[in-house]
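Following up on my earlier thread - several people asked me to post the actual chain instead of describing it. Fair enough. Here it is, all 166 residues.
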Amino acid sequence: MNSKTTRPIVFSIIFTLICGCTSFKTLNQKRFTVDLSSLDWVQFSRTINGKGDVAPVTVRLQLAGSGYLEYKSGRSTKVTTDFWQDTSASNWHDIHTDYIVLSKEETLKYYQRLVDAGVYDRIKQTKNETEGANLAILARIEFEKKLILTGDPVFIKIFDELLAKF
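Reply from S.P.:
Thanks for posting it. Predicted structure:
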């Protein structure tokens, strides 16, 4: 083989590698236009550690596809789970709940912002990305499920906006 015949082969290999890497990156992203369903939901959970022997305070927001936004906060295990736990625990009754109903348009806006921000991106989280994480997001939008632990300011801003409604 001379250099005239190997040049096209080398260029085609380089082109294939570049295109392959680009499409691999694209495959790692899962973004779509949300078509709202009452079966969709997103749950945010943030825990603020207590000092000493004081139990941490947890804030949980759950947004259903119907627009029902539920707020729970406190030191009780009932904040994080609705199943019965140790009812004799000293902080069993330390729970505050409230709810509001958002419009269909507003609910759709929050779901779309989450998808656009990359809540469903398939990129694996590294240990460094989850070390500073102080927000857990569990989502099910259009049959796509995902759990992420994040400190991403975009997700925290969405959480804070929903929290400000209370």
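The longest helix spans residues 3-27. That should answer part of your original question.
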